[in-house]
Amino acid sequence: MYRVKIRTCLIINHSHDMDNPENHRLKGILLNKCPRCGQGDFFITKSAYSRGFDKMNRHCTHCGENLVPEPGFYQGALYMSYAFYVVFMLVYFFVFTFFFSNYYNYFLISIIPVLTLLFPYAYRIARRSWFTVLMKSEPGYRNAEE
Description:
By secondary structure, the chain is mainly alpha-helical. The protein contains 3 helices and 2 strands. A two-stranded antiparallel sheet has the order 1-2. The longest helix has 31 residues, at 104-134. The protein is elongated and about 55 Å long. The relative contact order is 0.20.
């Protein structure tokens, strides 16, 4: 009738640097990978600048981690996105202030297209960061399907 997947926890020896869960978290945020295992894709498409850039996998294709824990979970990622935009705008402003102080008009003209072009990437990185920050840490354990 119903097919049930059995998931077990395996203890892993973290002798290699890439097996460190903290490396998986950073790799997951930066490279569109699952923060738990560092192997499966977080979003369906590889590029943030392709059609369907916002479509996510519901589960990790490698370890089976639930990437959509509950409805509305990613609303908090809006705040992460806002924080990334503020940091980017401050850096962008200081670069203009120190290197292009005579061209403040270009700063005002260029900031809107630059932020528009960054939207898909900021959207993805905010969601991956939000999930990674709130993911329960299980040091020494990894989910494996039987």
